[in-house]
Amino acid sequence: MFGKKTQPPIRSLVAPGSEIRGSMSFTDGLRVDGSVVGDLRANEDKRSILVISESAHVTGQIHADHVIINGHVQGPVHASELLELQPKARIEGDVHYKALEMHQGATITGQLRPMLGVGLEDKPPLKLAANNG
Fold it and tell me: Is the distance from CB of 37 to CB of 21 less than 8 angstroms?
């Protein structure tokens, strides 16, 4: 997974105080510190990472390989590899994931849905992060 391989570089930024209206696609990595009203979708040809910071707010669908959330998301989240929910993550929508890491304090108002192709005998990894504080 991403721990053994180099993560893609973050090449795009939605800066604090910025607001994007409309769907956005990206290659490699995207960091959102501002507001996005629209879908965020990674290019499927390459590995991708999406970081939603503590100050960020996204209203729309999210699709990427590795998703790290510490802000507010209103809409479904699709992480085809790993979804990391930091302590201040707030998700209002269904969460689709292959592997999930959730820190204490993160909240989800929606359903947790393992990605298709994972059988009941082959449960996806779920890791509750240790409280480091």
Answer: yes
